[in-house]
Amino acid sequence: MRLLKKNSKHILAAILLSCLALFLGLGLGLSAFGMGMESQRFINSVDAMIDKYIPEGKVVVDSNAELIGGVVDPYEAGVETLREAYQQDVLSTLTQEQLNDKTVVNFFTDYATDSFEHDWKAKYEAKEDLDVNQFSHALVQFDVKVAKEFHNYAFTHSGLGWIGKTGTVSQLLNNNFPTSALYQEAHKNETIIDQTAYKNGTYVVNNKVAFINSQITEIVTIAADQTLGTVFKDAQETLNALTTDGKSAMQISANDLYHPNFTVMYYQTRIGVVFLIILTPLFGMLMVLYTLISYEVFLRMNWSKNLLSKLKTNKTPQAPSIE
Q1: pLDDT digits (tens, 9 = 90+) for 223-233
Q2: d(CA 178, CA 175)
Q3: Which of 94, 111, 260, 302 can bridge 98 by disulfide, Cβ–Cβ 3.0-4.6 Å?
């Protein structure tokens, strides 16, 4: 008991320091990832799905494709199909209301075309083979580019990056956050419905499933066409890779992709902010205050000891009285 009392100051300082470190660690750990991490996990699952269903080297636009019976150069037809994929990709994320607005549609169509030319013009002008596997991965990165430029910052960056944006902390600490537009958008983006009930511009997972399936179907249709079959290096190999029985286009489902938990990460980031922005500074100030008080007490005690020591040293002894 005496030992505890003697070291009580050190014990209290250790407790404050431990709480400070704990709250800082929890704050950083809980808020580091945010909704952006869920987006990245979803992107990673799309990349994995591409390698599974469209293997590298199995679906290749042939730069030496020969014209069989049609009037369109097969290679140019293949390039045009890829260009349209960029356009269809960005347009598939628009709502029906946006699709009815010609100005919006024209803007995103031009944006997609410009992006395709930037990514692929040098290759197709040089008449290089175009591997659809590599193209599909590039299309995923195009999705990321679109999201970062036109979608909410919270879905495309880390939790710490999101917290750093003006207004985010007050938004997260708002008790009515479930009714906020961002939380509602997060809930919508993570919702998954029956694929047959899907419509344009809603639900991230369903949207990507619909787009990928439409692209697979289009490739199979081209590969099976007798006049355009030479678009791909080996039409039969393409059909074997993308069909279940040599005829029906392979289709993926929502189960092939990661299901993001945006609302969970929203709430987790909110808790992280409490630790990082409120509790960590609070215990930091307590630690500083305690250190200053302890230092002042220590100085006073030393001053008192030094004074007493000097008084004892300088005390003149009295001579013995002689009677």
Answers
A1: 888 776 678 88
A2: 8
A3: 94
